[in-house]
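hiii, so i know i said id send this last week but things got crazy w the move. better late than never?? heres the sequnce for the chain we talked about at the cafe, plus the structure i predicted for it. fair warning i was half asleep when i ran it
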Amino acid sequence: MITTVEDVFAALRAVQDPELGRDLVSLNMVTGVEIREDTVRVTVNLTTPACPLRTDIDQQCRQALLSLPGVKQAEVHFTATVPAATFPNRQNFLP
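okay and structure toks below
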């Protein structure tokens, strides 16, 4: 049986962000999926680059991916989106 992108998203619905209590898929944190033979690589976008629960999320993702039929290797890569700082009552810092 060949694992599909839909299978990967279904498996990752079981992985919850420990702080937010919701799954990574519904939070739109899974930003990339690549399937090559028996290897699945996913990209997870964290809310901060210094996420203290990154290791837990990594382990849960790998476990979920390795439970899929035919998957022998799982790779989890992380990115982070940091919102730009805004300053009230400031229109432009540059002249």
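btw Residues 54-66 form the longest helix (13 residues). thought thatd interest u
miss u guys!!
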